[in-house]
Each structure stands twice: as C-alpha cells, then as structure tokens.
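> @MW can you paste both from yesterday?
MW: sure, first one:
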Amino acid sequence: MRLEQILTTGAEEFGIHLSKEQVERFFLYLSELRKWNRKINLTAIREDGDIAVKHFLDSLSLVGVFTPQEGMKLLDMGSGAGFPALPLKMVYPGLSVTLVESVKKKASFLRHIIRTLRLDGVVVVDKRIEELPGELVSPFDVVTARAFREIEATILTGAPFLKSNGLMVLSRGPEETVGDEALAKAGVTLERKEMLTLPCSDYQRAIWVFSKAG
C-alpha cells in the first residue's frame, strides 16, 4: 500500500479526513525525522510505512477517546520526536501544545520541526517535567504521553498538571495494568481503556483515559 494511502485511509478510520496539504506536511515530517535520525536516535522505527502507522496514525488514534477543541491546552510528557502531540496539532491547529522533552538534542529536533511545519501555538520545554518553570505549571485540559515511564509513574507525574475534570490520555502497550491505589494517590479515575489494532497493521495498542475529579 502506498504511503499516502496508509495515511489517508488510516486517518479515515478515526474520522479524520486529511487534506492534500496535510498529507504533504506529514511527508515533510517523515523526511526530516529520517534525516535527523541518522545523527541522533529519535526513533528505532526506520521504515516509512511503520513510521506512518506506529507514529502518525498511533498519535491520531487518540481522537477516538477525546475531541480536540479550539483553545484546548495540551501538555505532552516525554515528547521525543513529537508523538502524539504534533500530529494532533497538525490536524487540529487550534490546540495549544506544550511539549516537555529533557533530552536537549531531541528538543532541538522538536523546535526544528515546529519551524519547518510552521506550527503556531507550540512551546518546547527542554527540562524534566518535575523541573517545569512556575509559569508553565498551570492546569491543562489534556495531558498526553506515549513512551514515558511505567504507566503508574506516568499517571502520578501527569495528574498535578490537569485541571479539574481534565483528561489524561495515554497510548500504551496492550498488556499493562493499573492498580486502584495508584489512581487514588493521583486523584484520578479510570474513565475507559480502549484496545485497538492500528490501521494497515496488526500493531495493537491500549488507550487509557483518566479524569481528574472536579
């Protein structure tokens, strides 16, 4: 299957219609990711089709559990090469996105790709999330993370940044579990856990959604 078809048909499964311009921007993202990946280790996934599925479509799959809205504030922990937040921002430009990535070289790539894709309303913080400057420690509507710590540690780390009734949306492997004690300590409730197989693949993911009590 051609790369463009993987992107467009895969996105359609999540109710997203990618324009020609958006597809071209995803191609540009892919090109820059491959270029930088030769110099720094951004991702172990190397094949174009796998990047399209396991990074781009995996990121877009989150819209199956929350609806991005204009002005919504999203915090992404351990952003790496920008997933899942930047693909979401590319499709929903009204999102206000903060990317937290403590590895300086990866943060440099994030700033580069944000400029290259001409994305407005995106901030990169190259610190550990525990070191976030005071002006950024304000409630977020949504906190996301993918390859970031063990799941219970991720929940405990992200919960303080959520506003009341905000959502934490985590894309994880299918085998993980979360104990009630960790949820109680974080002050969040498990709203749903959705299992899915990513389009054009047999790659399985679990999307966890937690809410913070009002």
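MW: second:
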Amino acid sequence: MSTVELAITAASRERVGFLPSLAARAKDVVVMTRRNLVHILREPMQLSDVTVQPVLFTVLFVYVFGSGMSLPGGASYTAFVLPGLLTMNLVTSSMGTGVGLAQDLSNGMVERFRTLPMWRASVLVGRTVADLLSAAVCSAVVAVVGLAVGWRPGHALLSVLAGFGVALLFSYALAWATACIGLLAKEPESAMSVGFVVIFPLAFVSNALVPTLHMPSWLRVIADWNPVSSVTASVRDLFGNPNPLPLHGSWPVEHPLGAALIWSVALIAVAAPFASFLFRRRTTD
C-alpha cells in the first residue's frame, strides 16, 4: 500500500515538474513511517521487545534483584531502578532499527523504492521515526508497570515528562547508530549478532541496575562515562527518584542532564550522516 502511495506521489510530481522541497520530503517520510507501522500492525509480535520485555524486566529486577539490594540511606530500590529499566529497555529495543533496515535490503524492498523519484533518505528517517513511536509505547509500558509495582515519581508532571523526553531522545539517537550497523551487515542475522555485542555491555555496564559506588575503580570510570549512565541519572533526577553519587565523581556524574543531551546530539550528528552515506553506497549501482 505504501509503495502505491509513493508511486502516485511520484507521478504527480512528474506531471507538474515538481522540484524537491521540504514539504515533499516530509510527505515521503510520513509515507515511509506509515509503511513501517503497517508492518507492525500486520505482525504484532514485532512489538514484543517494547511490550512484553519491559514487563518481564521490571518484574525480574524489582522482585528478584530488589529483594537482595541495599541502597545508601535505605532508599527504595524500586524507585531507583525504574529509570534504569526505562533506559535499558529503550537501549536494547533500539536494535530493531538496524535489523529492520538489513531485512529491507536483503529482501529487495529497497530496490523497489529506488525505482521511484522519492527522497532516498526518507527510508532511513521513516524507519527511525517509526521506531521512536515504538519507543514511546515502551516508555508507557514501563511507566504503567512501574506504578503497578510501587514506583512513584517525586517531582511534578512536567519534570517527569521531561525525563521521558530525555530517554526518548537518546533512544532516537541510538536508533541512528544501530541503523549504521544494519547497513554494514549483509544479513539481518549478522546485524542482530553485532548489535547484541555492542548493546549488551552498553546497557549493563552502567548505573541502570546498580549504583557505580562500589564498582572497581577501572570499571566505575567506564560506567560513569557510559552515555546510558548519564541518561539514567538525568531521568532519576527529573523523576525525583534516588540517585546515589560518589563523593568525587567525574563530569558526567556531576552533570548528568548536560552529559545526556550532549551524548544524544553528538550521536545523531555523527550517526545520521554516516548512515546516509552507507545507505547511498549500498543502493548505488
């Protein structure tokens, strides 16, 4: 259905001598985003990583890990871990962007798009926007399950929404990075394997599940400079949840919100152009 819409749009452009414009590119992005959302509706199991996984992770870490976890000052582990679970679920689910692009390239779908005078980058932008909407669903699931297991934010609604916004911005930035992995891989399975090797340590070598206070010094440095730690700490601060800090922390530890925004913007600035370059190279004869 989306291919037909693109064909109709392309034909109308040719008849009126259409020149590329921002409005036309935006329309291409909307069509490509809708195409990805339609695929999800036809195969709802694609949403398991943003619906089922958050529920399992929340129950597992709150009731299993939380039963033996002691935080400084006797803070609630549930309140501590929910922002970490939010970030971790968004990080692990971001690999769907790379796998989806690798799938489209391997099954010839992108070759069909090349026959149309559409904005080529709309394939990438549409994919990342659709995955951003999936990430928003994941955030909502984490919040609902968190409330069910006893998590409560300590700040006003606007601050809480800002926390979700920071997490979603990082998720969108990471989607561009995983898009590069998908474009470098020759098969979806390869993209998944490589992505797992990158995403797994990124998610777990951080303060998402445990404070970095008692980690070995060399590991604590890595965890403190991990962008996942900055995002998680900033979300905790915006939510008004416990965020134990070392007495003498590094710059990202002392300024988590600034570090999270810098990491996100820098990742988009680097990964988006690189993904566009890789896409042109993969789709140019």
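> thanks! Residues 2-282 form one domain.
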